[in-house]
């Protein structure tokens, strides 16, 4: 009887051990050594309201972020499972393990880094100077002295413009300023690089970017703190995409430029 009890206890321990191996929180699924919220899939979040980076078309998520996330998942050996979440709670959703990662145009900042871990950037953005397509006088920020610059009202870009010129005009939106630039009513506009590039492609505005970024936003994938295994695999996937030209192909499709380049 004593021997039978020992055998039963041992069997029970084996079963419990197997159950515990499914995930540290009891709800995750393990795949390729990774704890995932959905077995066999990389679930990544975005707002779905930020075209052309992520948005819905015919009820389906699409955009640059979606294609980058899908390619990352493929290279890790997983199915892509893009989902949406409101921006104001997107980090909380990650920490609650509603998804494995955020691939939604999130800039890596020191404040956010206190709550999540970031991978290497998957695109670079920041404050960029745009001028009319036929303008040859302005080549850098030093050439903006005395020039009429358009910016969004009450933005950090306005502060930058005020340091470069004493003739700065505020606008309610980036698009308003960029349209005035194309019409010759401004000498330059300072706005986010991606916003300006998208205006060139989607609205056909005859403008161009000049000079280096006035500041740099490193847009990265966010994962839960301490999830080094997933971060490492995502970094490897991003680098392999860059190395074999896949990244540039996706970037050219959406922006007609390589957004990893400054």
What is the strand and helix layout of this fold?
Layout: H1 2-20, E1 29-31, E2 34-36, E3 41-46, E4 49-50, E5 54-57, E6 60-62, H2 64-76, E7 79-84, H3 90-95, E8 101-107, H4 110-113, E9 116-125, E10 127-132, E11 148-152, H5 156-164, E12 167-171, H6 174-182, E13 188-192, H7 193-202, E14 207-210, E15 217-224, H8 228-243, H9 246-255
Number of structural domains: 2
Would you count the extended β strands for me?
Answer: 15
- Would you identify the regions where 5 or more consecutive residues have pLDDT less than 50? 1-27
Coarse morphology: elongated
Put simply, the count of helices is: 9
Question: What does this molecule look like?
Answer:
This protein has 262 residues and is α/β, with parallel strands linked by helices. The protein folds into 2 domains: 28-124 and 219-255, D-Maltodextrin-Binding Protein, domain 2; 127-210, 3-Layer(aba) Sandwich (D-Maltodextrin-Binding Protein, domain 2). 37% of the residues lie in helices and 29% in strands. The protein contains 9 helices and 15 strands. The strands form 4 sheets. It has a 5-stranded mixed beta sheet. Strand 1 and strand 2 (34-36) form a beta hairpin. Helix 2 (64-76) packs across helix 8 (228-243). The N and C termini lie far apart (75 Å). The model is unreliable at 1-27 (pLDDT under 50).
């Amino acid at each position: 009887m004593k021997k039978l009890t020992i055998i039963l206890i041992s069997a029970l321990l084996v079963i419990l051990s197997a159950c515990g191996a499914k995930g540290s929180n009891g709800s995750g699924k393990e795949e390729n050594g990774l704890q995932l919220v959905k077995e066999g899939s990389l679930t990544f979040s975005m707002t779905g309201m930020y075209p052309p980076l992520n948005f819905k078309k015919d009820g389906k998520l699409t955009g640059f972020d979606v294609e980058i996330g899908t390619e990352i998942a493929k290279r890790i050996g997983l199915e892509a499972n893009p989902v949406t979440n409101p921006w104001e709670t997107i980090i909380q959703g990650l920490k609650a393990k509603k998804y494995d990662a955020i691939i939604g145009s999130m800039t890596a900042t020191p404040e956010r880094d206190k709550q999540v871990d970031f991978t290497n950037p998957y695109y670079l953005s920041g404050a960029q100077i745009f001028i009319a397509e036929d303008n040859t006088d302005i080549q850098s920020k030093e050439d903006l002295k005395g020039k009429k610059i358009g910016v969004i009202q009450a933005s950090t870009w306005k502060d930058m413009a005020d340091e470069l010129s004493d003739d700065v005009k505020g606008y309610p939106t980036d698009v308003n300023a960029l349209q005035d630039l194309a019409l010759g009513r401004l000498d330059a506009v300072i706005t986010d690089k991606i916003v300006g590039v998208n205006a060139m492609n989607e609205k056909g505005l005859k403008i161009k970017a000049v000079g280096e970024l006035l500041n740099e936003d490193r847009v990265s994938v966010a994962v839960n703190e301490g999830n080094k295994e997933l971060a490492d695999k995502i970094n490897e996937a991003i680098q392999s995409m860059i190395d074999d030209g896949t990244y540039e192909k996706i970037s050219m499709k959406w922006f007609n430029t390589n957004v990893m380049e400054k």
